[in-house]
Write a structure and sequence with these properties.
The protein has 15 helices and 13 strands. The protein has 374 residues and is α/β, with parallel strands linked by helices. A 6-stranded parallel sheet has the order 10-9-8-11-12-13, sandwiched between helices. Strands 4-5-6-7 form a 4-stranded parallel sheet, with helices on both faces. α7 links the parallel β8 and β9. It starts with a helix and ends with a helix. The C terminus is likely disordered.
Amino acid sequence: MFGEELATRLAARGHDVTVYCRSRYSDPSRPAEYRGVKLVYLPHLPGKVLETPSHEAVAALHSLFRAFDIYYILGCRASWCYILHRLVGRRLVFQTDGLDWQRRKWGPLARTYLRLSYRFALTLASCVASDSRSICEYFLDHYRVHSEYLTCGGFVVPSAPQEILERYRIRPRDYFLVVCRIEPENNIDLIVRAFRELRTDKRLVVVGGANYASRYFETLKATKDPRVVFTGPVYEAGHVEALCLHAFAYVDGHEVGGTSPGLIRAMGCGACVLVLNKAFNAEVVDSAGLLWERSVEDLRAKMAFVLEHPDRAETYRRRAVERVAMHYSWESAVDAHERCFVRLTNSSFMPQRDVTPELQSPVANERASNNSPP
C-alpha cells in the first residue's frame, strides 16, 4: 500500500515517478503504467535471503542509466548496490524501514551483513529517512546521523459490508484479529498462547502468510484450540478492512519494524487496538489503544480487560479513528515526502552525518526542550 499511495499521489501532483517491481508478484499483463506511475519489471532469485538483494541489485544497475533526480530506496538490505550512484553524484534517500537486523528470522551471519549494510547506507545517503520518530532518535543516538521523519499514511474507513465476514465464518465483534506476516518478530505464537488461556467464546482470527517455507508457521497452525483460525493471506479488495472494522479487538505484536502500516489501517477502521509496548508502537497509538508487555500473562490480562469493559473498547475505537485522521493522513505523509525530495533536488549532494542542533530529529528536539530550565 505504501508504495502505491506515495507513488500515485506524487504522480498526480505532476512529478515523474518510476517504480521497480518484482516480476514474480506483478500482474501477468505487466502494464507499463499505473495511475500515472511508470512501472519497470525485473527478475530476482527466490528465497527469503536472496530475493530482496538480487532484485535490488538488478534494479540498481538498471536505474544507474536513468537520470532520476531522487532515488528513494525502501530499506537498506543492499546498500552496496548504490556505490556507483554515489560516485556519479546521484541523490539517494534510504528509508531505514525500522531496525531490520533485529528480526528474529535472521541468523548471526545475516544479522552481521544487515548491520554492515545499514552502516554503509548511512555513508552513501544524501538523506536518511525513518517512518517513526523513535527510529529517528535511535539513529541519532547510535550513529549521530539525522534521520528525516517520513512516515506512511492511512485511511478512515467508516463502514464495510458485514457479508464479507460470512466467507470466514465469523460474526461482527465476535473475534480478536491479527493481520501480519507470519514471522517470529510479530509474536503470533505469544498471541495464540495468551488467547488460549482466555475464557471466552470469541475467536482469534490470524490473517497472513509467509513468502517461504516456514517451520514457525507450521507449528502455529498445529494448535488444537478450535477457536483459533488461520485464514492465510487475504488479497481481495476491502476484505482486510472489513475484518478490522468488525473485529472486537485488533492485536499487534510487531517488535522491530518502526511504524506499522497494518496498525494504522486497523486504527483507521475503528479497531480497538492492543499493541506490543515498543516506542514506535506507543508513538502511533498514544491514548487510542492499550499497550501490552511481551508476556503471555500481560497480554491475556489486557484481552480480558477489554472483554470485561466493552465501553472502554468503544472509546478506543473512537480515539483510533480520530488519531489516524489527525496524524496519519496520506496527504500529510505525501506533503512531507514532497518537501524532502524538492529540497534535495534543489541542493547539492551532502550526506547528513555531522549533527548540529538544527538537524536533530523531532524527538530529540522535544526531549531537549523538555529538559530545559523554565
